[in-house]
């Protein structure tokens, strides 16, 4: 079945790879990104070239996840052009790297905005259409850091991704009675194929960073990055995440997995999430809300 899909943060990384993979799988894909006429103009051109060369329906659309007005305009345009919207993929995010103390509260608020509040803006714009249709799929790109091993110097990013994951879990239960499914994709650490580390933000308080570097944490940032790289297999390919998402989208209603882990480092998140999700499900059974664990087929 051909679905109409919107992906946030699709200029590069997991979003860009998944947009192309879903388009090749036969779907109508909107790769959303901000500044399509400026900074991301080259990505728009590359997407158009890919669509023409592969004869697929890959479209780009202006969408700034930090602006409700921009999100509303993009979602409304997609629905107007197609008469429906079948899949929302929450992928937009930003990483920061450095000692937690050196980040200002304003930086943490901005990070939370991009990684968590952005999903709320998109949901508020798109879910009314999915509820009206009585079917749909929401895909959340989480992180193994929410439940697996977590090295230092990534605390603000890990905290934001954990917030997003928590939202995804509860949203899933509030959408099943509408006939809407949820799949949470959990990538591990990929040091290649994405721009996470290359474009990672840095602490604004450089004086605090200098104190860490002059003290017992001298050279620690390099140690963390080297450690990360040492446990990522040389054949780890970020395209595996895109392939997993295509498989989820193409799976029939009612059979889609709640979580999918793609973790080349095996940091333990799959084991931990299995326990946490089971405990949460058991709580719902105990209070008589077991039905929200399974999406209803309404159409």
Describe the structure.
With 299 residues, this protein is α/β, with parallel strands linked by helices. It has one domain: Rossmann fold, CATH 3.40.50.720. The protein contains nine helices and seven strands. Strands 3-2-1-4-5-6-7 form a seven-stranded parallel beta sheet, with helices on both faces. Helix 1 (13-24) packs across helix 8 and helix 4 runs parallel beside helix 5 (155-175). The longest helix is centred in the middle third of the chain and has 29 residues, at 105-133. The chain starts with a strand and ends in a 13-residue tail after the last helix. The mean pLDDT is 94.
What's a concise summary of this model?
By secondary structure, this protein is an alpha/beta fold. It has helices at about 15-25, 40-55, 70-80, 105-135, 155-175, 205-215, 220-230, 240-250, 270-285, and strands spanning about 5, 30-35, 60, 85-90, 135-140, 180-185, 260.
């Amino acid at each position: 079945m051909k679905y109409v899909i919107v992906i946030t943060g699709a200029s590069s990384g997991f979003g860009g790879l998944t947009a192309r993979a879903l388009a090749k799988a036969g779907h109508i894909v909107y790769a959303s990104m901000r500044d399509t006429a400026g900074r991301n103009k080259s990505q728009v051109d590359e997407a158009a070239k890919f669509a023409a060369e592969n004869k697929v329906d890959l479209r780009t659309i202006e969408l700034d996840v930090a602006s409700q007005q921009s999100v509303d305009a993009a979602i409304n345009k997609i629905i107007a052009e197609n008469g429906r919207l079948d899949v929302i993929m929450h992928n937009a995010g930003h990483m920061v790297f450095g000692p937690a103390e050196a980040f200002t509260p304003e930086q943490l608020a901005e990070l939370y905005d991009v990684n968590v509040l952005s999903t709320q803006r998109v949901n508020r714009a798109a879910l009314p259409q999915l509820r009206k249709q009585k079917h749909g799929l929401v895909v959340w790109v989480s992180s193994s850091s929410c439940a697996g091993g977590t090295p230092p110097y990534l605390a603000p990013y890990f905290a934001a991704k954990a917030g997003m994951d928590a939202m995804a879990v509860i949203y899933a239960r509030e959408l099943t009675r509408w006939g809407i499914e949820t799949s949470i994709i959990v990538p591990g650490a990929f040091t290649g194929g994405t721009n996470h580390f290359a474009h990672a933000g840095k602490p604004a308080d450089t004086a605090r960073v200098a104190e860490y570097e002059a003290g017992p944490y001298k050279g620690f940032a390099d140690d963390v990055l080297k450690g990360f790289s040492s446990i990522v297999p040389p054949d780890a390919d970020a395209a595996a995440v895109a392939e997993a998402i295509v498989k989820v989208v193409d799976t029939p209603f009612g059979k889609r997995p709640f979580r999918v882990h793609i973790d080349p480092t095996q940091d333990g998140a799959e084991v931990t999430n299995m326990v946490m999700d089971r405990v949460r499900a058991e709580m719902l059974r105990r209070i008589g809300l077991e039905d929200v664990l399974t999406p209803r087929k309404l159409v």
